[in-house]
Structure formats: structure tokens, C-alpha cells
Amino acid sequence: MTVLVFAVLYAPLFVSLLFSLVEIKRGVIQWDTLSFSPYLTLWSNASVISALSNTAQVAVVSVVIACLLAVALALYTESDGAIGRRVIELVIYLPFLMPPIVTGLALLVASAETGVPRGLATIVVGHAVFVLAVAYRLVLTRLQSLPPSQVQASADLGASRWQTLRLVLLPHLASAVMTGAVLALTLSFDETLISTFLAGDQMTLPLRLWAMMRVGFTPEVNALVTLVLLVSIALAVVVAWRMKPDDMGEE
Amino acid sequence: MGVTLHAITKRYGTVEVLQPFSLAVEPGEFLTLLGPSGSGKTTVLKLIGGFTEPSGGTITFDGRDITRDPPNRRPFNTVFQDYALFPHMTVAQNVGYGPLVQRRSGEAVRRLIDETIEVVGLSSLQGRFPAQLSGGQKQRVALARAIVCEPAVILLDEPLAALDATLRKQMQLFLKAIQRRIRTTFIFVTHDQDEAITMSDRIVVMRAGRIEQLGTPRAVYFQPATRFVAGFIGENNLLAAKVTAPGVAETAVGRLGFRPETAASSGWLSFRPETLRFASEGIPARVEEATFAGAITRVTLRPDAAPDQTLILHLTGDAATQSLEPGASVHVAHDPARTVLIGDAP
Amino acid sequence: MTRSLTRWLLFGVIAVPPALFILAPLGSFMLLSLFHSEKSVIIRAISLDNYRAFFGNWTYFGTYLGTLWLCLQVTALAVVLGYPVAWFIWRQKGGTRYLLLLLAVIPLFMSYIVKLYTLRAILGLNGLLNQALIGIGVLDKPSQAFLFNQTAVLVTMVVIYLPFVILPVFLSLERVPRSLLLASTDLGAGGGDTFRRVVFPLSLPGTVGGALFAFVLALGDFITPQMVGGTTGFTIGRVIYSQFGLAFNWPFGAAMAAVLFVTALIGIALAGYAASRQRV
How much is the ipTM here? Predict the structure, then answer.
């Protein structure tokens, strides 16, 4: 039964792979058209390339912002006597816990009210806000695993707070930040619902795919889809490999 | 009506955790498996309980071969080290779990459950959940849960390890009293030799998968069979010795008498620190250090004849008549009747 | 500067990004829901008209309730299918377990749009499902029944949200200490009893928590109904989306989204409560 469920969950991969290699005429598979050429002609499709580059830019920028904020916020909430810790955490987790439609709408309204035009910048904000929760959680867990005695020892040996931060805390967090970054990249890469509200003229890859989807099922589209899936899976494996010794199964 | 292990061996991969190990447990006794970590004592317990299978040998109960029986078919119950209480069930439900899954019900069973809860002194806490109980109380629930199944043997896996010193002493007495009362065989695993001496009818001292000695607490204490046992249980004095005449041996500190138990001609003389006393005649020595330790004062001495050897002497509080300054010259006398020879063996 | 003043300043500084980019937008959209729109112009006068229009009009309110019901079904199905899978993975040991878990989690990373796209291909008139059914003789010509209706939305959503349920269920199973399983066996319970009386009750809170989380995510999904729902597959998400598109009634859309927001908050709160009842 597990096999059946897995088969269903992985169907998208196999189906799109199949359809990228062959053509379908009126529901009948034309095996004689088997070829890898769609994978090659894909790269000359300008709209696809621009969508890809947009997605990459958005992903990198939003992840960097989210990771920086995550570290700052985690350090703050874990420090002694931090005010408003619970409130801040609630606000951080909110965009991740809410249906993306709400997050997207909220930012859309905000951008309209403040007169900020929709475009890549607004998408970046949308992604950063969404991904922050994940990065924050990973960094926080890692931070909490540092025995307080290490920070105390550092101070005891004469380090200033800045030095302790730089030489003890940040190195300890580095691995969590890396894992968080990769995870965040994967999430941003695929983010569709929030992006629909915040996109201007520039499209990200999922949005471009959505548009292409309404048109039809050419092998080229399927080739793109297969590639996207393979990249996602590769990223997922990287994340899983990184998280294996530490925490298993943390999202 | 006893559990017997016949030449049991256990291997994990290439590591032999238990060498051929045979043991006959007496029905109704409080038997302790004592040893350092890695000695295999917990493995023996798990083998008896059925949580792991032996690599070789058989286990019988009442003459019946139970080697392949799973835990739920053996008439034994285990008290786990972390108590393993079901957090979503009350004390009463935890204790009632065994009868429930064994499909035993009825008036007699209900009475048994109530009585068992009373025997362990938890009647007033029946409705509580494990999270609301203290360590000692959880322990008693775990015990009651095992007792209520009326097993032939109860297996206890270092159950007192998580308790603080005072509570531990209380629970030791409590367990011993319960065992006497219900007269079920208890097989108890610990690395704490005080605990073993206090509670057991017999002790199995183990090391590296082998039995070093099997005997009553007195036998193990006063007549250690090997150097390991002598050193593991309590503090001990050991001197290399060659027998010159029956009951007399030549050692580095001189000629000493001992109580001959075996025909060994050489080995180690073993005598406990409390069997030494200060005297006007005896082994000349210098006091190295005297440490007050509450019930006793522990004195380490260096014999004049063999200054690299250390002797340990225990004094009880008011017997400190001699000057105990470091460096003081004294004479110590040993008690031949309580000195034994451990034959040469690794 | 006194210590507590420094603390407040620090709080102020650190709170700016979350407040600015999360709270403020949420606030502004809740505020918008209280305005209304006339002929594409937003009148900034506070009133509850939008909410009255929503709750009073069965077209909208009914769709909302229908969506709640749909998402409950999706979640329930996901749990029914997902729990056994998680249980099976949990029963494996070592490397196999990790590998299977990895396989179960990877679909979470697979592109959402892609899943929709391929499911549409599978369910469609010329799709694989029809072809398979014709091939084995169940149908003699392709059926329209699989796509562009509410059932299609249901099936698609289950496929998409199933992985979101498998992981929390697995985690809650994993939290059951091994010694409890040993104790249960020791006391005479067979596999069935141990599962029924120990494993299942202890894994339930975590499972419910995970299910509620998937429920909240499914609530706001508007692309799925649009892609596979046709004209009969309508969710409140789609209705909200159209207010920001064709219908161009932002305040009204905001009001409905606010209702959705509150529903989601309740869902999250329930999930949190369920998780807190986890005793291990």
C-alpha cells in the first residue's frame, strides 16, 4: 500500500519525463518521436530563460535577507531578558502558518497602499517573509543546542560580547544557516501562490509554467517541468543529507 | 521451578558479549547480577526476558525450553530502567494493563489489582498520571505493574539508578521487603556493589561476559574468588604471597597467617580494611593519610618493609587511639581468620 | 542608559522588520476589508458592509462552507492514506527507514505547479487514467468524469497535501519511546494490542496537529480549483482571487480573506493545542 502511495506521489515526475520525450497526438503516444531535443530547444526559449533568471535572483536575494534576519532574531530571542519574545516569534511564524493566499494578499494591499509597484522587489519581500520562519526555526534550534557554559567560558576568558559573537556563536550557527539557506532556496524556487499576487510584468519560473500550462502540453513544456522536478529533488537530497546527523525530519 | 541458563553465548557481529554462561536461579531468591558496564549483566537480563536471542545455548524454565519464546509468552515481567510507564494512562490503568491485554478479568482480578496497588503504597494516587508522580512513586508503579501479572520471575534493570542517595536506600529496603512478602524470584541488575550486598540472597559477579563468582553476599565479601571480585566489592588489601606452610604465607611485608580454603601454593592474600587494627606488635608501617569519612576513618599506610605497597585500614569513630599524623610510625596487625588466599588466576 | 531602557531600544530595533513586513501588511489588509468599493474606486469609510454581504449571501458563504468541508475531506483522506505509510516507514530500521522517509519527504519539494500540471494530464480526457481504464476494459470510451469538477479538486489536493501529513505523523510515532513498546510486550500484549492501546493514542495528538496544518494550507489554495476544477469546482480561494482580478472589488476580497485568516488562526490554535496534549 505504501508502494501505491509512493507511486501516486511520484507520478508527476514519471509522467512529465515520459511526455517530454515523446509526442502525444489525440491521446495516443507516438513512440517514434522519441527524442531529447526538447531539452535542447528549451534553452533558446527567451521567456523561459528570463523566468529562470528572475527566479534565481529572487531566490538568492530573499534567502540572504531571510537568513540575516533569522540569525539576528534568533540571537535576540535567546538572549537574557529579551522583551516581547513570544510576540516576535508568533509574528515570524505567521506567514508560514497562514494560507499563502492571506500572506500574498496582505503584502499586495500593503504595496498598493504605499504605492510600491509590483515587481521582482515585491516578490522578494513575499518570499523572504515566508521563508524567514523556516530559517529562524533552524537557527534557533541550533542556537539552543549551544551549552550556555560555552558563552560563559568565553566571557570568563576575557572576550568582549562582540568577540564571543564572532568567535563562538556564529561558527556554531554556520551549519544551521547553510542548511536553512538551501531549504529556503528550495521553497523560494517553487513558491507560486504568494508570487501570483506580487508579480508585476516579470515572471518567476512557476508563474511562467502556469501560463504555459494554460496553453498546452508540448514536449518542451514537459522537458522544462522534468528539469524543474529533478533540480528540486536534488536540492531536497542535499538538505536531507545536511540534516541527517543533527535533526532528522525537521522542516 | 527455576530459570536455568545453559551455556548461553551472545555475539554482536564479531564481538562476544557473553562467553558460555550457565546459571541456575533458585525459585524465590533475590539474585543480583553485579558488574561494571560492559560486563554483560544487562544482556543476561534481556536474554532471560526474551528481548534478545542467544547466539548459542538454551534457556529453560521448569525444565521447558523457552529459548525461542517471545517476551509476551514468558512468565516473567520486567521493571525497566526508565520505568516505561504509559503516560496516557493513570496509575490504576498502568497496573491494570497486563491483565487487560492478557484478557483476564473478573472480580478476583480486580481485587488483585487493588491489593497490589496497596502493597506498594499507592492507593491514594491511583488516579494520577505518571507526569504527576515523583521518581520513587513511578518506580513503585512499575513494580506493581509487573507484580500484578503474577510472574514466576521479576527482572529489574538497574531500577534505582535514577534516584538520589537517600531515596535509593529507602527503595532498596522497600524492594527487599516486597520480595520477601510475595516470594517471587527477583533478578536484579546493578553496578552498585553496596546495593548488591544489601539486597541479595546471592550475587553473580560478572566481568567481560564471564561469571567471576557466584555466592552469598558474605561469601563474595569475605572470600572473594578472584582478584577482580576482591577489588570490585568494597575496599581490599591484596598482597602477593607464596605458601610456606599450611596457613602461612611469605609476602613482601613478612610472614602472615591466613585461613586456608584451597590447596593453592601461591597467589594473593586478601583481607578487608576493617580486619586490620593498630597494635603494639605486627607489621611496621608509616601513616600516609587519614581521611574522616563519617562512619569510618580511612587510613592509608606504607609498610616499612615494602614502601611501594599500600595498606588500607578502616577505623570506627572512637577507636582512634593512635596518633594519625602523616609520617607517624605504627604497627598494624591483621586477622588470620579473616584473611584468605586467592589462587593465581588472571 | 539604564539596562531596561537599552532592552526596550533593542526590542524596538529588532521588531522593526517583522512589524513592518508582516504585521503592517496584515493590518492594512484587515483595514481595507472595512472599506468598500464603488465602481473601482475605494471609499475609505469604515463599515461592516463587506462582512454583511459575505455572511448574508449564500453564494459566498455557501462557497466558504463548502470549501471548509472540502478541505476537511482532503485532510481526512490524507490522514487515512498517510498514517499507514508513516507507520510503515516507522517500523523499518536504520538505513531503510531513513531512505523511505527521504522518499516520502521529497514530494514536498516538488514544484506545486508541476504537480497540478501532471495531474491534469493524468485525469484528462486523453489522460493516462482514462487510457489505463480503457486498456483494462473498465471503460470503453474516455470519461469526462475525472477532470474539471469538485472530485478532481479533491483528488488533486489529496495528492498535493499528503506529504504534509506523512511527516508529522512519522515524527509523532517516532517520539514514542521504545521502552514503552518493550514494556507492553513484556506485559503480554500482542502487536495489535500494543498498537491500539499504546502507539496509536500516543501518536494521535501529533497526527491531529499535522493534519490541521495541512488543512490550513489547503484552505487558501486557489490555483488548484482553477486548474482542475472547471466551472463546478469552486473554492473560496478562487472567489477571493477573482475579487483582486476581474471582479476588482478589493475591499470585499479582503473581507473574505480576513474571514479565511481568522479560520486559519483557529485551525493553527487547535493544532497547537493538539500538539500540547502530546504526552511524550
Answer: 0.78
